[in-house]
Amino acid sequence: MILRKFEIDSDFEAMKDWVTDEKTHAMWCANLIKYPLSKEHLAETLKEVSNRFGDVPYVAITDDDKVAGFFCYSFNNETKEGMLKFVVVDPEARGKGVARDMLGLAIEQGFENPEAIGLQLNVFPENLRAKKCYEKAGFIERNLTPNAFTYKDESWGRCNMVFTREIINPWKEISLDDYENHMSLDSVKQLQTLNSMMKLQLSDYDASTAMILGVAGGNGLEHIDKNKYKKVYGVDINEDYLQMVSERYSSQDKLGEILECIPADLTKNVEFLPTAELVIADLLIEYIGYEAFTKAVEHIKPEVVSCIIQINTDTENWVSDSPYLHAFDGLDAVHHQMEENALRAAMESNGYTEIKKVTEALPNGKALVRVDFQR
User: Fold this and answer.
1) Is 108 exposed, middle or buried, given 0-12, 13-18 or 19+ CB atoms closer than 10 A?
2) Which band of pLDDT confidence, cut at 50, 70 and 90, is reported for residue 317?
3) What is the C-alpha to C-alpha distance for residues 63 and 1, in angstroms, rounded to an integer?
4) Residue 84 forms beta bridges with which residues?
5) What is the pLDDT of residue 207?
């Protein structure tokens, strides 16, 4: 199957009988195109949506050169989302994967625009067949407006569905060797400094359960007192990191069943995370932001939160120079500049009060600042 631009003079005949009854017509186009469908009415509507929204009509052509589907596409420069309208396929092609293939090509074409972050469409939830088709293609319901459209004596809702570009978090692509080798250089000294700081984070509070957000390769876990902690959760987005944590610390002569590794993207769903009395987040908030961090904290419900953030005197070169520098090139896309006051305000809005602050100097004018909060 291929997509090409719709030519009304040559393509209308192929599609004119795809929607013949009045109710199906209303479900297809919300009566934005007059019923019954005519060449003149369709041309008039296509001209209007082109002028208002920049819509371009397309047809799907099967491998045997038949017109089997139709839709319009536009792109919103403000929201950075594409929009599909008037999606319809030949009824004779239903059940043969035509709609799925056409939507797949539409999605692929929409994301050829590097600025596009999503592709959306609207469907009446009463149109069960269409909604199920969109769900199979990967669209998810974003919001539902009840009673958005009236057809005779019926009231229909409007379901907005979106297909979002999957962006690979750069932390999934940084090898643990590059990360730890960079962090342990004498010119960086973050690994060594974080290790000594975590030792105190783990010992300073009367907690029997702890969750370490952004555990990476497990630096500092050797300081866990097995007589004190009943459970320690190591959370990270990179499953290769967690595998190494398990290899390093999960044997019975080390942490055994006390340690549980949990893969998680903390910028997304955190509802599956268990509760813990102590949360440790070292050099994590920089990469998920204050809002995502406080949402995670709100769900985990710790009594104490101990954070370590990096304070930079050079905001442009926030990663220290090293032979491994280019391994971190992608982090610019997810990095958030840290400020103590902003962190304090975010935690206070979540019901936490600052109880401790410790600063450790690093090379290159940087510093690690530990800030602890209690509920």
Assistant:
1) exposed
2) low
3) 5
4) 73
5) 98
